């Protein structure tokens, strides 16, 4: 079972992610969208969406640092294990709570606003289930580890090493099998979510409008009556009602 869950499932999940993304780009270009419902309701969306997206950005960054950067590297630059965990828990908790609050608002909005509820796809229910599940389990694992409920278990000596071993195609699945239950479930939900990305609205993350940050300035012309007094009157079909 450990071999199946921690030695095979991660590769199956990534394969589905890559294959599904290419399939979606090739055969469903017009469906590659967030299916935005902003036209139906915008007040809750303006609160929940930034909380979720910015929170998730820092959550992903924290996972990358925690799983990819070996403990020997942080020790080499003089960061003690206590300092590292203190920074990881404090920043990760803030980012996780922000992301969880944001997705909670978005889910509430989707079921509370009738027009948004009618625009909900079947894939959305599955996506929200695993997204919320992964967040709750991640926060639970963080709390249990911080309060000592998992004993002296150090994920950097177990889960992180297992994760890095996936890149060498020699997964040390025994390390992951010895991890506490909460992080195990968190990772299972996470890899399942990866496999669902191409088949849900989450696929829009691969087409984020990064170029928006580097676009030219937009020049607006003043509508000051003094500056527009000499303009010719609009013709009939050009007038705004």
Q: In terms of per-residue confidence, which ranges show pLDDT below 50 for 5 or more consecutive residues? A: none
Secondary-structure element sequence? HHHHHHHHHH
Count of runs of 4 or more consecutive helical residues = 10
Q: Compute the CA-based radius of gyration.
A: 23 Å
Q: How confident overall, as mean pLDDT? A: 84
Main sheet characteristics: none
Q: Given the helix and strand composition, which structural class is it? A: mainly alpha
Instruction: Kindly state the number of beta strands.
Output: 0
The span between the termini is 69 Å
- Overall helicity: 55-70%
Outline type: globular
Strand content: under 5%
Your description of this structure?
It is built from ten helices and no strands. The mean pLDDT is 84. The protein is 63% helix and 0% strand. The termini are far apart. By secondary structure, the chain is an all-alpha fold. α1 packs parallel to α9, α4 packs antiparallel against α6 and α6 packs antiparallel against α9.
Please give a handful of descriptors for the protein shown.
241 residues; mainly alpha; 0% strand; globular
Task: Summarize, please.
This protein is mainly α and 241 residues long. It is built from ten helices and no strands.
């Amino acid at each position: 079972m450990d071999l199946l869950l921690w030695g095979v499932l991660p590769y199956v999940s990534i394969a589905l992610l890559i294959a599904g993304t290419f399939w979606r780009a090739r055969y469903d270009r017009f469906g590659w969208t967030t299916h935005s419902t902003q036209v139906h309701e915008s007040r809750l969306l303006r609160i929940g969406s930034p909380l979720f997206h910015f929170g998730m950005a820092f959550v992903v960054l924290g996972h990358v640092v925690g799983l990819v950067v070996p403990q020997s590297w942080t020790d080499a630059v003089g960061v003690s294990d206590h300092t590292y965990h203190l920074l990881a828990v404090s920043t990760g908790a803030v980012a996780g709570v922000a992301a969880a609050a944001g997705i909670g608002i978005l889910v509430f909005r989707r079921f509370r606003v009738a027009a948004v509820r009618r625009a909900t796809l079947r894939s959305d229910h599955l996506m929200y289930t695993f997204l919320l599940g992964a967040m709750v389990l991640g926060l639970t694992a963080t709390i249990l580890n911080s309060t000592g409920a998992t004993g002296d278990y150090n994920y950097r000596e177990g889960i992180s090493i297992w994760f890095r071993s996936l890149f060498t195609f020699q997964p040390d699945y025994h390390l992951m099998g010895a991890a506490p239950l909460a992080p195990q479930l968190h990772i299972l939900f996470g890899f399942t979510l990866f496999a669902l990305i191409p088949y849900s609205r989450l696929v829009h993350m691969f087409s984020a409008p990064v170029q928006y940050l580097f676009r030219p300035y937009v020049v607006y012309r003043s509508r000051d009556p003094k500056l527009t007094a000499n303009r010719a009157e609009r013709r009939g079909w050009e007038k705004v009602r």
